[in-house]
Amino acid sequence: MELSRVKELAVRYQDYMVKMRREFHRHPELSGEEYHTREVLVREIEAMGVPYKLLRGTRREKQPM
To answer: What is the pLDDT tens value at each position of the chain, 65 positions in all?
Structure first.
């Protein structure tokens, strides 16, 4: 991919990427307990129409405290 195309895509998706970063930082999670992160990523991937498959261990629900 040409550098000019990379720059064009970076500019096009900058606001989206900043929005996602802020969302993840607003909801910090411990390693292995990224429940909110998973929900956001699944929602975004589905909205894009990208096929995906959740791997074993990723469906675990947040445990009550």
So the answer is: 899 999 999 999 999 999 999 999 999 999 888 999 999 999 999 999 999 998 876 555 555 54
Cα–Cα distance measured from residue 19 to residue 40, given in angstroms and rounded to the nearest whole number? 12
Q: Cα–Cα distance between 54 and 41 in angstroms, integer?
A: 11
What are the φ and ψ backbone dihedral angles of 61, each rounded to 5 degrees?
-90, 155
HSE of 5, CA atoms in CB hemisphere, 13 A? 2
- Three-state secondary structure string covering the chain: CCHHHHHHHHHHHHHHHHHHHHHHHHCCCCCCCCHHHHHHHHHHHHHHCCCCCCCCCCCCCCCCC
